[in-house]
Amino acid sequence: MEISIPPEPERYALESQVRECFGRCAYTHKTHEKMAERGARRQRIMKWCQIVLSALTAGGAIGVVFDRNSVVFPYATAVLSISLLIINSYVKDLDPGKDAQLHREAASDIWNIREAYLSLLTDIRDPGCPTVQLRQRRDDLQALLHKIYRSAPHTDGKAYGQAQDALQHREDLTFSDAEIDAFLPGPLKRKAAGTC
Length: 196
Description:
The longest helix has 58 residues, at 9-66. The protein is mostly helical and 196 residues long. Helix 3 packs antiparallel against helix 4. It is built from seven helices and no strands. 78% of the residues lie in helices and 0% in strands. 16% of the residues are buried. The chain starts with 8 loop residues before the first helix and ends with a helix. It has one domain (12-193).
């Protein structure tokens, strides 16, 4: 029978706080990923709309040149040109591609902090790591995270909801031992080592 030694109250409190920080980082990272996906999708749609409207406008202009008696080509070309102008004016002030890139960069930076919090949680369980050192690492991570948050673009509730669904229901952040074993060479697999 395995005897469980209760953690020191000081370490337990530190671990609890770091767990909270890790959870917040996981959600923020995933939310920025969802914002990046939406920005990239919005950019693709806008670019395709511009291409299609440009092609139709050019086709209408060619139709006007070759069929001067048609009433449809001039009006259709005018409507298409105005539609293209509206989309181009809208896209001029918005840059969904740039926004997506900023969210990708923020997610990447936050991912690194999230992984550092995970390593810190592992080290907290090691009785050989001094609590003072663990607290210093926590404080350093908090300072780094603050710098990232200050320059990161804002997210919205929709992206947070998508992140929540991905983390809670689709388990985007977790792997089973079998999934991890599939990536590792034989000697590093848990099933091969018999510890699973």
